[in-house]
């Protein structure tokens, strides 16, 4: 089968063996894949968690049809239209655990390209905003890096869960101007030294109840200033850098609950529970298309290199999708 593989000469399309499902796995005939920032790093040979390096089939997010099921897989059958996450997604066939996928809503008129934009954004940001962020109706939230696909989803989930004030950050003026379409009441530029003052002004001087941070590094201390006393910061991503100055005294003085999350060290049981919580809590909003992501551009699989060039240019809003 065709797959996008990191080889000795970099990322390229190659022929690899078709996998077979074991245990609780299902084999999915992939019809579309969503690109993510971690994929971009892996095309350059970087390791993401336990995945990466020469011989790795790249990709983490997909939509398609179940072709086969393992002997212990439950609740699914061949022919089911599904979307999910897991390794080795950029291929004609991929394996997934039976608890790490969602059924594509039958009544939502959702195609495979649209479905491929959703699994990582839904799972990541429901866990960050609702489970770990403990957002309550009437509270305020700031999403750092809001113009990414997961950032756009975070703002929508926050609004759906009753947030009074949603703030999104983007360093690009054009994308910043569109954040209100996805739930932002205020859009700020995290490179502007005055962005914290803007947040304090809109929150009556208190700061936000919750920050979901995808930037880290250079904004760490600004985030502390922008969070209210006894607020929460959930560290989801580190697009701005994995290291930076941190004012421990300010953190203590504001009594901020600082939480780090990643899928890389979660067990499959934990991941299954996250997928269950998404379906229990916000799935009606997915079925009604209240929670959805824009597609920036769809590329054919043979042009997957061009898809990554577009992601690296960092001019897109929403998801870049590859169709098989």
TrEMBL record:
<protein>
    <submittedName>
        <fullName>NADPH2:quinone reductase</fullName>
    </submittedName>
</protein>
<dbReference type="Pfam" id="PF00107">
    <property type="entry name" value="ADH_zinc_N"/>
</dbReference>
<dbReference type="GO" id="GO:0016491">
    <property type="term" value="F:oxidoreductase activity"/>
</dbReference>
<dbReference type="InterPro" id="IPR013154">
    <property type="entry name" value="ADH-like_N"/>
</dbReference>
<dbReference type="InterPro" id="IPR011032">
    <property type="entry name" value="GroES-like_sf"/>
</dbReference>
<dbReference type="Pfam" id="PF08240">
    <property type="entry name" value="ADH_N"/>
</dbReference>
<dbReference type="InterPro" id="IPR013149">
    <property type="entry name" value="ADH-like_C"/>
</dbReference>
<keyword id="KW-0521">NADP</keyword>
<feature type="domain" description="Enoyl reductase (ER)">
    <location>
        <begin position="7"/>
        <end position="322"/>
    </location>
</feature>
<dbReference type="InterPro" id="IPR051603">
    <property type="entry name" value="Zinc-ADH_QOR/CCCR"/>
</dbReference>
<dbReference type="InterPro" id="IPR020843">
    <property type="entry name" value="ER"/>
</dbReference>
<dbReference type="InterPro" id="IPR036291">
    <property type="entry name" value="NAD(P)-bd_dom_sf"/>
</dbReference>
